[in-house]
Each structure stands twice: as structure tokens, then as C-alpha cells.
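Re: the 440-residue chain
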Amino acid sequence: MENKLGLREIMNIIKQKWWVILVFLIISILLSTFISSVLITPIYQSNTKLIVYNNKNKANTDITTSDIEVNTKLASTYSEIIKSKSILERVISELNLKMSYENLYNNIKIDNIDDTGIVNIFVNDKNPENAYNIANKIPAVFDEEIKKIMNVENVSILEKASLGKYPILPNTFLNIFISIILGLFAGLIYIFAQEYSDKKIRYKKNTICVEGIDILGSIPYSKRKEVNQVKESELIYMNLDINRSILLYKDIIKNIEFSNVDKKIKSILFSSCNKSEGKSVIISDLAIFLSNMYKKILIIDFNLVNPTIHKTLEIDQSVEVLDLLLEGINFNGYIKKSSIDNLDVLLIGDTPSKSSDLLKSDVIKNLMENIKNNNMYDYILIDTPSTSTSLDVDIISSYTDSAIIIVEDKKTKKSKLLELKHRLFKNNIKILGIIVNKVK
């Protein structure tokens, strides 16, 4: 399929896989909460404010631009002195702190408010009381030391530190918000990566599954009821809306007829890559619809591995067709009439273990030539085993004009479909297209 996704396809993928995004979201939130609550040690913060002024102009209440510039430069200088070794080691000693100068230095942050001379001292610590005590001790020690260093008294405490009640780290709400964003992105990346790496057929209207093969139509997924007996005009998919079913199969038949405008196609082989992809049921459906359009139809059940046409159409398989074939009886003698007008069935019956030997025989070859040359039927629909269980399709395809491949949505692998395509092309068989079954 094409790798390009339109907006509608993107929205459909998100709609179908919303639960994947939800799982990523929940895991991300739980992981973030666990890390924030258990793995990360809470950090508390206390801060104090100092103001620096030019004491030479203390008596003068008029503040000039020059004063502001001096105060700002002093605040910058004092910020460096506050974090000096002599100040912080004295703080450690007087508070009996069990930490080194480097540890305390890294736990302190100093901000100067522009053009004010105000210095903010922030202290972080795992213990809120330590942060509180250090934040209040630093200004006291600095005030004493600055007098000795510069012989000035131009620092005042503007605001003392208070005991922090709540940790500043981790920021649980911020972490949860980030985890929500990451969870959403991770979920979206996962589902779209899965979409692009998926090697299975996924039905999209008006596209092709494999280059050179058109989609004839699609059949929606349905939990089909058991059909005891197929009556005239009755559908195999009993619980599908009848009008919808008619439209679906009419579209498929219209596409088949369009491929056969010159009436050169008479026999159609149906094959699939895997078992249980609904091939035999679709053949029966198409045969019923075609017969109701006054087309004369013959179904040949060449699925010698797991024949099911007789079960689907409730036809007796007791007659040993092989014996009749070997006796040279005309093919009209063993073609069975179904309960549906214009629909006949040829059932091979029990076969030897080496079915390939039978299919290669002159008996089967003559049978197919006689049926095709008789012109009794508008279409001959041939059921074959899946390519995963048998190689019979390679032999049977040599007796037919064209082929239709049945694939199951989101199950059939593209590689298997390509393999079947090349096998049919090798026998110069025209592939009319693909019918995608069980589309959800």
C-alpha cells in the first residue's frame, strides 16, 4: 500500500488505536508520579534579601543616577564576596553543618535586581531547617566580615528568610504535565511507527494493495450466522444489511465485467495466501449474485485440501466424481444442480493424497477443455486451496483465463501477496484484482 497518509486516515488510525495512546499516557503519568514521589529527594528553599547603599550619601535623601550605578556595582561585588570561602566556611563552622565549602557553594544562588542594589540570596537544602538557618546566617556573617574587609557599613537586611513548608523540587505538577505531553507523543509515535512498519494488507478505498493489482471491492467483517440451506436470492452473509450487501457485490461484479468487456474471460480462479480468509464463501456469494443476474454459472471445487463449497451450498458429495471421470462419462453427468437457478456445481470429492498428480493428468485437462468449449456457462468460478497449504494453484492456473485473489484485511502479509502475484504472472494469468475480506 502507499505509505502516504491523509488527514482522514490519520484520524481513523488515532480513533482505532486511542487505547494505545491512553496506555502510554497512564504509564507516563504513573512513572512520573513514582519518580517525583519516591526516587527524587525533595529540595527546600529559603531566601533573604539585602540592600546595598552608598553610605557617603546616606544623609542626603535625594538619590541620583550616580548613586544607583554605585549601588548596583556594589551589589555585584558583594554577591561575589558572599560566596567567598571565608564567608561560607564561617557559616559552616558556626552552624555545625556536615558539608564542605563546595557543597554549600553549589546550594547557594545569588540574584541582583537590576538598578536597585537589592541582593537576593537563595539557599537550597534537603532539610528545610538547614536552608532556613543558612539563609539567615549568611547575611549576619557577611555584615561582620564586610566591615573588616572594606571598613564600611552600607548593608541592611531588607527581608529575613522564612522556613520553607513545601519543596521546590521536584515540581510534581510540572512533571505530570510534561509526562502527559511525552505520553501523548510516545503513543502517537508508537501507533504510526507500527502503521508504517506493518507488513500486512490494510484496506484503503481507491488504492492498490500491491503495484499493478486493483482492488475490486471489499467485504465488511461479519459474524456470519450458520446457513442451513441457501435459498434462491439468499445471501451467505445473512446478518449483513441486504441493500448494503447487494451494493457491495454489484460493485465487485461491475469491476469484473469491466475487465471483461471483450468477453474473452470465462474462467476465473480464486486463490488466497492463507487459510480461512473467506475465499469459498465469497465465491458462493458472487455465484449467487451472478446467477440472479441471469448469468449461467458453474463453480468447480478444486480445493482438494479442504473442500467447503458443498457445505456452503448444502450439496451432496456422495458421488465419486473421480470414478466417473476415469470411466470417461461426459461432464454433464456429474455436474450438480444447486437450489439456485442458473448455478451449477462440480465437486471433485475425495482425492488421493498426491492431488498434484491428479490435477496434472489428461483427465482433468480434458475436463476443463470440454467445459470451457461447451459454452454452457457465462462464468466458471474455480475454488483452489490457499497457497500456504498447497502448490495446486500453479497447476490449476494453467487451465484458467484469469484470477481473483482474496485477502483478509490486517492479516494477509504483503510479501505473501506479492509471491502469489508472481506465481500467477508466471503462468500468464490475468489478475482481475483483489477482494479485501473482513474489513472492520
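Residues 225-239 have pLDDT under 50 and may be disordered.
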